[in-house]
Design goal:
Largest sheet of chain A: 7 strands, mixed
CATH topology of the domain at 224-324 in chain B: Enolase-like, domain 1
Structural class of chain B: alpha+beta
Bound molecules: flavin-adenine dinucleotide, iron/sulfur cluster
Number of helices of chain B: 12
Number of helices of chain A: 16
Strand content of chain A: 15-25%
Largest interface: A-B, 41 and 39 residues
Shape of chain B: globular
Strand order of the largest sheet of chain B: 4-5-8-6-7
Structural class of chain A: alpha+beta
Helix content of chain A: 10-25%
CATH architecture of the largest domain in chain A: 2-Layer Sandwich
Number of strands of chain A: 26
Shape of chain A: globular
Oligomer: heterodimer
Distance between the termini of chain B: 52 Å
Number of strands of chain B: 12
CATH topology of the largest domain in chain A: Aldehyde Oxidoreductase, domain 4
CATH class of the largest domain in chain A: Alpha Beta
């Protein structure tokens, strides 16, 4: 048996790059996603009609034309929708709130559902949804923050973090600092936009509701549906065997699930509902707009003496989500005088929601840009500035930082990237018409632990079966769990079957917050140890046969990882993952076009179970970092509150031509202080801090510092010295 | 999408007859634009007449010089055609700068010319748009207009035409061959796309019931061909500003033979007076030509930057021309 709760274990399978076990199914199309689970034309299809005003009341809703159109079975509106539980803004977890639909005439945001048309085919349902006619009484809405908008100061930010913290005396420390940076950064709303649109197939069987859906966390669905539909957990089955990406948008229940469940109840037949790509810009939540002020004060040697990070964030008062933008700043660099603060401003938009690296992505974009500005003011190498301010103790809580390897990531990354070759002054390297620059930034991300149960069994079919309600949202959950179980039990990966993403399976926190792998492998480890102990035979090649010799009907064991709130000394340590980003890019000296040339990230995220799948996660994260710096924004018309660029032709995500060589360096070190098996998460780490490396490289290339995102051509070339 | 009748034309005459018989009929070629618009019910034809398999997919030499590009030639085939690549390089470069490989494999010569604007308010069906719904107003003018037109606009509409291919065709003085009830005739590309005026819902000079059969290019011009397209992402995005350029290069000096801009207007923007004004450094020539081309620009607050960017893009294109001819 290989125990993974010790340092320096020799492993056979963990730490190896093996291909995704579900890869062949996915590339041949035999992996069926939620919307494909029922054959076309055997299930009724629901399509939403949505509001065309940003705020107000439905005055009249005429569905008579839609109701008589070919194939239409039912049109659901506020008039006939069943009573549902109310959305309660006091429910602390955004993901488990009741999210009723078609519950009244009030319109809270543009694109809100006003009717669900149920028909025999998608085409007929969509056609009829177009024929639903609404008239409204519009009310003036607030769709973009303007000075003087109402601002509140909630106590908690997302995930239960205090919204305001202070240590030492920030004002005095900053006032007395020799070198100061005080800058404001503005980031736009983002939408997750996973490749697979949100889709749910619902079927009632008496009191029982069966749901097949595309979701990140099975457990949250039950809580949310209990609040909305008053359905008991034992009357609910949920399955999500394949999920085509989530990025935070599949943590909460959305209109597809509510719509399918209600419609299936009303027509007493299975119904499926899928959002169109355009609807994914209004039926889902967004990463909220935010404006951040970062103040850094340092002594002349570059030691930080004051760090202030304040964020003003859109958070909907009816469905609050205060992104935890400043929280990792609390653990990033040393400095005696510090303050972080999150304030909320309401807008009449779709609610806020986690989107790829909530908190860290915008937060580090600002702080790590400011660090570059500080390095320049100090005339210091940006890597040295960061290394100088590294710390082994959490500067706020004073407890040890586990697996702290920021400097190691900085040094390894700098070395592998060739940072020493960087142009030290802006506009000092040019190749043809292109100005070349390099930039870097630190990465840090919070580590979370949630209650997780896993079962492992030897079956009479001579297989190892692992059972968990964890989802695989494209990350490789099936594969790494098989590797892990095989490693610990001494069998091979091909002996293992992984059963995931069903509500009948042992519950965990799903895939989100980069915690799926760490939570589930820790519980799986516990289960495997218990199985070996119960079997009373040694782990190894013959484990299955020897176990079955003693227990011909098979044997199973469960394992558990407690929630962090149940771990007595949890707060005695501060747990994070770390990294460093390096970017080289070229800027056209006339047009300001940016061509990224190289990206390298060095990351330390505990034990790496599968370097191949880990690399894919980190690499994807780095590209999302590129996206937030250079491409992505939901543009809202401030007059109407609609998303103007609500499709993937106009909502600019990076394309292949935008993404050059990407190199991922893994600093593989089990962090047994963070997690019993030393595993932390890689899902979002790649996106943390990455954006700032582009901003800093842009400055290094052409001397233009942009603090309003995403960076547009005009905000670059309009500062160029060439006159026209 | 509204239900519609789909029919395959068996001959060109058949196609014209079908269109004449049904005013609500439309031609479908690659479908890459029309079907998207039908799904959103921005276009609601009741009949689709398919022009595939009518032999309109060939590229032929015109006796006496020039090239006839069939209406149904796929964009990929057009761009990779040997003669086009060698003698009309600006056209190849324009086409491959547009859309994606997959879309270009379906998209056709005629469909590309006829594609509709990408103004986001034209797509946002809850918004006022004179092009989509005549007389309803224009929500773009005071809205998110960053990528809309600065030249040839009207109070009714500030949309751009999104085609890259058309910009190169304009620089090459192409002619659009059209078949109607009275037979085949030519529309010079200069007159093919229309400025909005107070009828922005009419994009082109093609009349109802007519179909495009081909685009004809005159004899090759020679010179150095450049298509320089600037946009926020490196690929798969419509032009913010683009330049189709045929230049004469003589060492450090360049001269403009032909010049058309994309991304600035509802049609390819060419001002002949800015061409053949002598040679000079790229910077001098760009400044001189841009001043003429951009005269009368009427930007919004959000797209004023295009004036500066157009000149910069021309400057960059002239430098590219120097580099290409090295
Ligand atoms: C995501 C995306 C990105 C794109 N990016 C770019 C870009 O960067 N640059 C660019 O230039 N284009 C771009 N395009 C547009 C693309 O070039 C057009 O969709 C394509 O050229 C249309 O050709 P089609 O044959 O598919 O036309 P269809 O969709 O079949 O038809 C378009 C129109 O042309 C009419 N039509 C077709 N053939 C004839 C004929 N023979 N006679 C009369 N009328 C006819 C149809 O009735 C219809 O109104 C993009 C498209 C997409 C979807
Ligand atoms: S600019 Fe033209 S296409 Fe755009 S909304 Fe106005 S009228 Fe419509």
């Amino acid at each position: 048996m290989t125990r993974m709760d010790t340092q320096n274990v020799e492993t056979r399978i963990v730490g190896r790059s093996i291909n995704r076990l579900d890869g062949p199914q996915k590339v041949t199309g035999s992996a069926t996603y939620a919307y494909e689970r029922a054959k076309m034309r055997q299930t009724l299809v629901g399509v939403f009609a949505t509001a065309t005003i940003g705020k107000g009341e439905i005055r009249e809703l005429n569905t008579s034309a839609a109701e008589t159109m070919p194939g239409v079975r039912l049109v659901i509106t506020h008039r006939n929708a069943p009573q549902q539980g109310e959305l309660n803004p006091e429910t602390p977890g955004f993901a488990v709130r009741a999210r009723p639909i078609l519950a009244g005439t009030r319109i809270d945001h543009f694109g809100q559902p006003i009717a669900l048309v149920v028909a025999d085919t998608f085409e007929n349902a969509r056609d009829a949804a177009h024929a639903v006619v609404a008239t409204y009484t519009s009310m003036p809405g607030s769709f973009a923050y303007v000075e003087g908008n109402n601002v509140t100061e909630p106590e908690l930010a997302n995930a239960g973090f205090p919204a305001f913290t202070q240590h030492g005396d920030f004002d005095a420390g900053y006032a007395g600092a020799a070198v100061k940076i005080d800058q404001t950064y503005e980031t736009p709303p983002h939408f997750s936009q996973p490749l697979e649109p949100h889709a749910t197939l619902a079927r009632w069987e008496g009191e029982m509701l069966h749901i097949t859906t595309s979701h990140q966390t099975i457990r949250y669905i039950g809580v949310s549906l209990k609040a909305a539909l008053d359905i008991e957990p034992e009357n609910l089955t949920i399955s999500a065997p394949f999920v085509g990406g989530g990025f935070g948008s599949k943590l909460a229940v959305h209109a597809d699930m509510m719509g399918a469940a209600i419609a299936a109840m009303m027509v007493n037949e299975p119904v499926k509902v899928c959002m169109t790509r355009q609807q994914m810009f209004s039926l889902l939540g967004m990463r909220p707009w935010q404006r951040q002020r970062v103040r850094l004060g340092a002594d002349t040697a570059g030691r930080l003496v004051a760090i202030g990070h304040e964020a003003l964030i859109y958070s909907n008062s009816r469905d609050p989500f205060l992104e935890q933008t400043g929280t990792v700043t609390r653990s990033l660099y040393s400095g005696a005088n510090r303050m972080t603060r999150h304030r909320a401003t309401h807008l009449d938009l779709t609610n806020g929601e986690p989107v790829r690296g909530p908190g860290e992505l915008p937060g580090l974009l600002a702080v790590e840009s400011a660090m570059d500005e500080l390095a320049e003011a100090l005339n210091m190498d940006p890597v040295e500035l960061r290394a100088l301010n590294d710390t082994m103790m959490d500067p706020e809580s004073g407890v040890p930082l586990t697996g702290r390897s920021l400097t190691e990531c900085l040094r390894t990354g700098a070395d592998r990237f060739g940072w020493s070759q960087r142009p030290t002054r802006p506009r000092s390297r040019q190749e043809g018409q292109w100005l070349i620059g390099m930039g870097m930034a630190s990465a840090i991300r919070m580590h979370f632990q949630g209650a997780t149960d896993v079962e492992v069994a030897i079956t009479p079919e001579r297989r190892v079966a692992v059972r968990s309600d964890l989802t695989d949202i494209g990350t490789g959950s099936y594969t790494i769990l098989a590797q892990f179980a095989a490693e610990v039990l001494g069998v091979s990966v091909s002996d293992v079957d992984i059963f995931l993403a069903h509500s009948s399976l042992p519950a965990g926190g799903g895939s989100g917050g980069s915690w799926g792998a760490s939570n589930t492998t820790a519980a799986l480890h516990d289960a495997c140890l218990s199985l070996v102990q119960q079997a009373g035979v040694p782990a190894g090649d013959n484990f299955i046969s020897q176990t079955l010799a003693k227990y011909p009907k098979g044997l199973s064991a469960t394992g558990r990882l407690p929630a962090s709130s149940q771990v007595p000394d949890w707060s005695e340590k501060s747990r994070h993952t770390y990294g460093a980003h390096f970017v080289e890019l070229a800027v056209h000296r006339l047009t300001g076009e940016i061509r990224v040339r190289r990206m390298l990230g060095a990351f330390s995220a505990g034990r790496i179970i599968n370097p191949k799948t880990a690399r894919s996660q980190l690499l994807g994260g780095m590209i999302w970092g590129l996206s937030a710096a250079l491409r992505e924004a939901a543009e809202i018309d401030p007059r109407y509150g609609n998303i103007v660029n609500g499709d993937l032709a106009e909502y600019l995500l990076p394309v292949h031509a935008d993404v050059p060589d990407v190199e991922v360096v893994l600093v593989d070190k089990p962090d047994l202080d963070a997690n019993p098996v030393g595993v932390k998460g890689v899902g979002e780490l790649g996106a943390c801090g990455a954006s700032a490396a582009f901003v800093n490289a842009l400055y290094n290339a052409c001397g233009v510092r942009v603090r309003h995102f995403p960076i547009k051509l005009a905000s670059i070339f309009s500062h160029f010295p060439e006159r026209h | 999408m509204k239900p519609f009748i789909y029919q395959r034309a068996t001959s060109l005459q058949d196609a014209v007859a079908m269109l004449a018989a049904r005013p609500d009929a439309r031609v479908i070629a690659g479908g890459t634009n029309l079907l998207d618009l039908m799904k959103l019910q921005i276009e609601v034809p009741q009949h689709l007449v398919d022009l595939n398999n009518l032999g309109l997919d060939t590229i032929e030499n015109i006796p006496g010089g020039g090239l006839r590009l069939g209406a149904m030639v796929r964009n990929t085939d057009l761009a990779s055609n040997e003669t086009v690549r060698r003698q009309y390089g600006v056209l190849t470069r324009a086409i491959v700068s547009g859309a994606s490989g997959q879309i270009r494999n379906r998209a056709t010569t005629a469909g590309n010319l006829m594609q509709r604007t990408r103004c986001p308010y034209f797509y946002g069906t809850a918004m006022a748009c004179n092009k989509r719904e005549p007389g309803s107003g224009c929500d773009a003018r005071n809205g998110i207009s960053a990528n809309l037109a600065i030249l040839g606009t009207s109070d009714a509409c500030i949309a751009t035409h999104p085609s890259d291919m058309a910009i190169a065709m304009r620089a090459l003085d192409a002619e659009v061959r059209v078949l109607g009830a009275e037979g085949e005739y030519s529309i010079p590309i200069a007159d093919f796309h229309r400025l909005p005026g107070d009828t922005p819902h009419i994009d082109t000079g093609l009349r109802s019931g007519e179909i495009i059969t081909a685009v004809e290019l005159p004899a090759p011009l020679g010179g150095t061909h450049v298509y320089r397209k600037v946009r926020e992402r490196a690929s798969y995005a419509f032009a913010t500003v683009s330049v189709a350029l045929v230049a004469q290069v003589d060492g450090a000096n360049v001269a403009i033979e032909r010049l058309a801009f994309g991304g600035l207007a509802a049609k390819p923007w060419r001002v002949e007076a800015a061409e053949r004004r002598g040679s000079g450094t790229p910077e001098e020539i760009a400044r001189d030509a841009a001043a003429i081309v951009l005269e009368g620009a009427r930007p919004t607050e959000r797209n004023r930057y295009k004036i500066d960017l157009a000149q910069r893009t021309l400057h960059a294109a002239l430098i590219d021309a120097q580099e290409h001819s090295r």
